[in-house]
Design brief:
4 helices; four-stranded antiparallel sheet; alpha+beta; globular
Length: 141
Amino acid sequence: AESSATGSTASVAESSEKVEKPRPSRTPGCLVKLTGFSGNDELLCRLAIKQFAEHAVTVEYCDYVPAASTALLRLKCPEDTVTLLEDMKLTGRMLGCQQPIAEVLGREEEEKYWQDVMERAQQRGPKSDAALKDTKQTAKR
């Protein structure tokens, strides 16, 4: 009985490598735009912005464009956007040396954002998948 359990575990591990990455959640009302900070601040990075928000909520992804001095946070659910905005208002927490401004994207802004995401993914094309596989193989060695 133990060998069959071990065998099934191995097949699950093998099959999980072939599974495609899940697509990001597109639940409406889950995108928060942060502005009001300097893109020139060398200490600001995607991780710092994500950690700023994660004092209050879980961030699925942080899309940060330093040149535009904006970040878009993908949160799990619309309720998390309310929680984040309330937390920022109550705490006045700073991001670097500045207090960012947060707003939940409207339906049209969300649609435009997702179109941009898809266009960027198409521009990267299959090369990024091959590079990702090479990185995984190198990591295993």
